[in-house]
Amino acid sequence: MKICITCKGKTPKSPVEKNFGRTPFLALYDEEKKAFEFVENTHKDDAGGVGPKTAQLIADTGALVVITGMIGDNARKAIDIAEIETYKQSAEASVEETIEAFQKGDLKKF
């Protein structure tokens, strides 16, 4: 399964980004391969509609789960339509800490 985490940088040590639509990067973790891939959010600086655009970008990656700090209503609707599960994580946690917490079942759904 592929897991997406909104993040501020391009390494597993990068902190989680709390703002879903304006996240600079998306960390994609493949549970089968136990490997990360980092993708730039090309919509982060758009004037409007960044939440749904970011949601579509995530859906296009094939991720089945997204973990973020907070998510707006329009982005949430787009994520729900794509049938992607959404979990909350604090911005203090790193990407790798977030994966560990998710795998332990410590994160709560939005």
From TrEMBL:
<protein>
    <submittedName>
        <fullName>Dinitrogenase iron-molybdenum cofactor biosynthesis protein</fullName>
    </submittedName>
</protein>
<dbReference type="InterPro" id="IPR003731">
    <property type="entry name" value="Di-Nase_FeMo-co_biosynth"/>
</dbReference>
<feature type="domain" description="Dinitrogenase iron-molybdenum cofactor biosynthesis">
    <location>
        <begin position="14"/>
        <end position="104"/>
    </location>
</feature>
<dbReference type="InterPro" id="IPR036105">
    <property type="entry name" value="DiNase_FeMo-co_biosyn_sf"/>
</dbReference>
<dbReference type="Pfam" id="PF02579">
    <property type="entry name" value="Nitro_FeMo-Co"/>
</dbReference>
